[in-house]
Design a protein that fits this description.
Number of domains of chain A: 2
Strand content of chain A: 15-25%
CATH class of the largest domain in chain A: Alpha Beta
Oligomer: homodimer
Strand order of the largest sheet of chain A: 1-10-7-6-5-4-3-2
Number of strands of chain A: 20
Radius of gyration of chain A: 26 Å
Bound molecules: zinc ion
């Protein structure tokens, strides 16, 4: 029986700390992972204690088993992982053996010097060795950098078929060390297809509560919590932790009541903590976890939840933008930063990035742009390219949940884009045209939208991650179809119930005083239920229209933002 | 059997010219009306000839029977009318006798010196005498000034119970001498409740065709046509007319095919023309006349048909407008003119007029304003007062079809306003509140709207003349209800199918940069089907929004107006 049959269906108990136990038994050890080879009986004893306490899952003693941490060790990563899995396996009986993977201990680019590929190779080595030695699942834990977690997950999923669980560790400010908030974590990890996600280490279960609540609010998959036993304190010249097993278990029960289904411990916890949890949780029914119908995209740190009107800045598209085109030609990546920063300041919540200009290496430029912006501006990106391989590369390096711009209703497009979107957990802008041509009737465009969503579902892409572009046409060429697009917006909202999007300014192409037409069409579309507008945030009147809409639709309560911004 | 049982149900033949026939028989006569008394046998002979030709309706020889034209006559109006009716009555048998009323021959204020009341007294005298002498209907004809026609109709309807038919005479430019176009004529005369309307005299039936087509396009009641026999020409030293009876009758047939149901002749026609019509129209079926579902209001000259978005200028409301308040206080009526002219230039299609300010005679000020504007600016008025008697006075003097601002869903309001609206044929702004209070739920406000329309129907006020004010609330006080109003707009359009109106700028009351909120709310409302906006046309951004909407909704075809106005 795979652990997948248990996750989310019953309470699963992971073990507690090995590190803390080892500290007691082998206080002089520098690289605890070496004990797998040097003192296998100790490890088996510790695993057996957790099994005896009632753990269903025991984690291997391989937290630091990577080349960076083993640099002075006489053992290889493979040796340590192989013995680590064997030690657990030998005592596990019906329990599951989780290959424990911790962070590399070095920061990854752009935060540090380790490259994406170097990190990937480390995690791959661990996964391959662990799977070969017979572990049952991969537990990626104590992650701070969402990109590192992503690389580890990709390495796991691309190199074995085992279930993957990932947990991150948070600071007192409610974010990880690199600034990732719980919403971003949930969106990215769920998007990457982990089987459970959650939080470990951090601090005691009491202080973890608000973070766990946030995770429960946004996650649709089983949630793991493995807290420390409170904060470390010195007592009788020994490090101990300030939360006793009873208190620990009471908090864990509270979390299970709220919706957590996988529990365990981290620093300072012992088999007694787990045993107390098993005792106190006995007979509890799991809270049914609801699938959250929320569209979320994220930067490397924080998430944008599509609840109100969302603005995507379109200034990083070279067509008609000389300065940006020149920056691309000269390879000046500073422009990415300054434009993204400025657009964010003016009201963009997401930045569309397109680097298509003649004579440059688009793939390289896109990766450069994605890295540059995502490392310096806290704003999600929308990857805009007509080349699926460029989109894929950008998504691979992107440290968050992005939007793909775009798929359309043609078979070719869906066959190429959906697998990428699924793998990297991206949202997708879906343009409502297909092989029968551009600019069809409202009915046809609605059918195309429905078909796109059905086809996406076959790739297990939820409709919440599909954004329907209702196609803003130019008044110059299609004046008699402009109201059709607005009708499509309301019908897509009403009949399909997904996010709708318009690149409003097409309407005014070739006409004078474009802002007047754009802002009017925008307000009309908002009135019909439009969710997302892709626009130039440099257009003051468009931003004003959104600010006004937020007052009118009671989002900007008491017009606080409006008054602040517009009072003389 | 009243003629009302025939009108619109079968072809009704009115006679042709008496004047032309009299010219032949009594070439020296100066006041032809005197012949009623001096040569009754001649009149009876002429009437009999028309009866012999097949006329169902013979008109009395009383075209000029008023004090202005009879100033040098030894007979009174009453004498002439009494004998005129008697002459016709004696030979009429089963035919109907129409009391013929022509224009006074003097212009009425403000075009001339005759006052409304003086004119009214003249027409009243004719009507009272005619009814007393036993005529069957009142035929008001050859009118040029819509106000004169209106006074005559009011005099007829207020002083007898006979059916009233009214026809006007047009010039080659398609308008009457005072500039009334066919749409305005139809709207005003229908509004005043005449039993048939149409055109007489003017020129030959060939050249009348486009005017008749316009009337047919807009009228919902039976249509009369009594053309001249072409244009007068000198032949053998005698005046004759250039269209022969066969050609005349062929044109008449064409008109009947299009929808005219009452035919006859004017200058130059003879019993032969009528006989030829009777012959050629024999056995023809009337074209079923459809009730036109068009909301129309008019100035003294032209109509505004509510097909696209209609703008009502609100600048003539004293509240918060110092200059206007001062003008009212000082009795300066020039301000009415300059404001109306300016508002029209800026885009108002209708002007709301309210004179309520402390310390002035509101009734006098309102009448002054109505007269001043309607005599100098070609734009319909909306009469805005909380006092029904002021509304009634204004409507009485107003030379067109106005809008009443406003009725609401309370019994008191409906009981007072609907009789006035019906009598003067005005459209009515209906505010969606009632005794249960202001600002109710969408459902309640929709019910109030439905109730208002049902109650209006009991007064025989068509729903096309009811304009539902969906009530724009202030964001400051009712932020959570603003979208309700937009929902009400679309539900009123969809479920009741009447004109909807908003006084948009309430929304921004007390907030900064009001134009941003106003223009955004306006565009949102337009997107939900709003028909009429009452607004300050001095707000450039509001006007821009309407111009943009007209492009977006394909009203401003190829954006011709937009490009003209906004190209640099
Ligand atoms: Zn820990
Ligand atoms: Zn731990
Ligand atoms: Zn005539």
């Amino acid at each position: 029986m795979s652990i997948l049959d248990k996750l989310g269906k019953e309470i699963v108990y992971i073990d507690g700390a090995l590190g803390t136990m080892i500290q007691l038994e082998a206080p002089d050890i520098i690289v605890p992972d070496e004990l797998n080879i040097e003192r296998p009986e100790l490890l088996k004893k510790l695993h057996a204690m957790y099994l005896g306490a009632g753990a269903n899952v025991i984690t291997t003693n391989t937290f630091g088993a990577n080349d960076y941490k083993l640099i002075e060790s006489k053992y290889t990563v493979e040796d340590i992982i192989t013995s680590g899995v064997q030690n657990a396996r030998e005592v596990a009986k019906s329990a599951y053996v989780a290959l424990d993977i911790g962070p590399l201990g070095k920061m990854i680019e752009p935060l540090g010097k380790v490259t994406f590929n170097e990190a990937y190779e480390q995690f791959k080595k661990q996964v391959v060795a662990g799977a070969k030695a017979g572990c049952d699942l991969i537990l990626i834990e104590t992650m701070s950098d969402i990109l590192e977690a992503k690389i580890a997950i990709l390495a796991a999923k691309e190199n074995c078929d085992l279930p993957v669980i990932c947990t991150m560790t948070f600071n007192e400010n409610g974010k990880t060390f690199t600034g990732v908030d719980p919403i971003a974590m949930v969106a990215v990890l769920e998007g990457l297809g982990v089987d459970a996600l959650g939080v470990n280490c951090s601090f005691g279960p009491d202080k973890l509560m608000p973070i766990v609540e946030k995770i429960i609010e946004y996650a649709s998959i089983p949630i793991v919590v493995q807290p420390n036993a409170g904060l470390p304190i010195m007592k009788d010249n020994k490090v101990t932790y300030d939360i006793d097993k009873e208190t620990f278990a009471l908090y864990i029960r509270q979390m299970v009541e709220l919706g957590v289904s996988i529990v365990g411990g981290c620093c300072g916890t012992s088999p007694e903590h787990i045993a107390q949890c098993v005792k106190i949780l006995k007979g509890m029914e799991l809270k049914k976890q609801e699938s959250k119908d929320l569209t979320i995209v994220t930067s490397a740190r924080s998430g944008v939840v599509f609840e109100n009107i969302t603005v995507i800045g379109e200034a990083l598209v070279p067509t008609g933008r000389k300065k940006y085109t020149q920056a691309l030609e000269k390879g000046k990546d500073m422009f990415f930063y300054s434009s993204a920063k400025q657009q964010k300041k003016l009201g963009a919540q997401i930045i569309n990035i397109n680097v298509s200009t003649p004579g440059i290496d688009e793939n390289a430029a896109m990766i450069k742009g994605v890295k540059r912006i995502s490392s310096s501006v806290d704003i999600p990106l929308q990857i805009d390219s007509i080349h699926p391989h460029i989109i894929e590369q950008a998504l691979r390096y992107y440290p968050g949940k992005a939007i793909i711009n775009s798929v359309n209703g043609t078979e070719e497009s869906m066959n190429k884009i959906f697998p990428i979107a699924k793998k990297y957990g991206a949202c997708v802008i879906a343009m409502t045209f297909d092989e029968s041509g551009l600019f069809q009737s409202v009915e046809s465009r609605l059918d195309i939208a429905k078909n796109i969503i059905e086809r996406a579902a076959k790739y297990e892409i939820s409709k919440k991650d599909i954004i329907i572009d209702c196609l803003s046409l130019s008044a110059k060429a299609y004046q008699d179809r402009l109201l059709d697009t607005l009708e499509l917006v309301s019908r897509v909202k009403c009949e399909i119930g997904v996010q709708t999007m318009l690149g409003v300014s097409n309407i005014s192409y070739g006409l004078p005083e474009r802002s007047i037409l754009d802002r009017t069409y925008l307000a009309m579309a908002l009135s019909r239920g439009l969710d997302i507008v892709m626009m130039s945030v440099y257009d003051k009147e468009m931003i004003e229209t959104i600010d006004a809409f937020n007052v009118i639709s009671n989002i900007d309560k008491s017009a606080i933002n409006y008054r602040t911004k517009y009072s003389p």
